[in-house]
Design goal:
Length: about 260
């Protein structure tokens, strides 16, 4: 059987992964805090008919060998944590991180999740939560009689209560960072959990020790660039078509061989 049939098939599978990743990026172009993904590939092992450097005579060696590759495979889908654009919302509980860091959230199973989505609300108990009701960690409770909420660039949360003229500090938002953010495991809903690859969370104060500052009244939008994604979509489609053409050509070659004896 012609080897190119299987080789081209691996190329089609690889390009399908590229299209899948690109499609997910495009689907999340307006998702708050979303970080685009990039598919990475590697060539498969090679079938060696002749090694380079073998003797071609008593006094010479072959400068090259004969190695035929067997295709390609996906090796990773990497999150790119570059900064997204900021969108002003005017909502006092919306926050964006200008730089490195993640908000900490308490997930339903009690574990800590991490997110770049800073669109927060207040629940029925006055606690600051995200859109799914996951509590911001450390927990911060806004008093019922609060008339205004202020969040400093260092994460200090203050409120102005009815009948008072000076704001009162009610807590401070603590950010988390990782040695390798790309190693975080995506849970969906803009949430991540740490893994062995990402390392444990490194907690700190916003604006210090390499952590970004917090900007109140803004959210960080997706870092997806549609022009880049559409270009990747086109190149992925053309590469897929080229691999399918290789399969068609191999099939025609087999058809020719089968027709030699009639």
């Amino acid at each position: 059987m012609i080897r190119s049939l299987y080789t081209a098939a691996t190329g089609m599978i690889a390009q399908q992964t590229q299209i899948d990743v690109t499609s997910n990026n495009i689907a999340n172009v307006n998702t708050i805090g979303y970080k685009k993904q990039r598919a990475e590939f590697a060539d498969l092992f090679y079938q060696v008919s002749e090694y380079a450097g073998i003797s071609s005579s008593d006094t010479t060696v072959s400068p090259t060998g004969i190695e035929v590759g067997l295709g390609a495979r996906p090796t990773a889908v990497t999150k790119q944590f570059s900064q997204g654009n900021f969108k002003e919302t005017g909502n006092n509980l919306d926050m964006a991180i200008t730089g490195n860091g993640f908000f900490q959230l308490q997930l339903p199973d009690g574990t800590i999740g991490y997110s770049r989505n800073g669109a927060f609300k207040v629940d029925g108990q006055g606690q600051i939560v995200n859109s799914d009701g996951y509590k911001l960690i450390p927990e911060i409770t806004v008093p019922e009689n609060a008339t205004a909420v202020s969040v400093g660039t260092d994460g200090i949360v203050s409120v102005l209560q009815a009948g008072e003229t000076e704001p009162n500090q009610i807590g401070q938002i603590e950010l988390a960072n990782f040695i390798n953010p790309a190693g975080l495991h995506s849970l969906g809903d803009n949430n991540y959990v740490n893994t062995v690859a990402s390392g444990d969370a490194i907690l700190g104060t916003a604006g210090l020790e390499g952590l970004g500052q917090i900007k109140q009244g803004f959210v960080e939008m997706s870092n997806v660039q549609l022009v880049e994604e559409m270009t990747d979509l086109i190149t992925g489609q053309r590469a897929y078509e080229a691999n399918s053409k290789a399969i068609t050509t191999s099939d025609e070659m087999l058809q020719t061989v089968n027709g030699l004896k009639r």
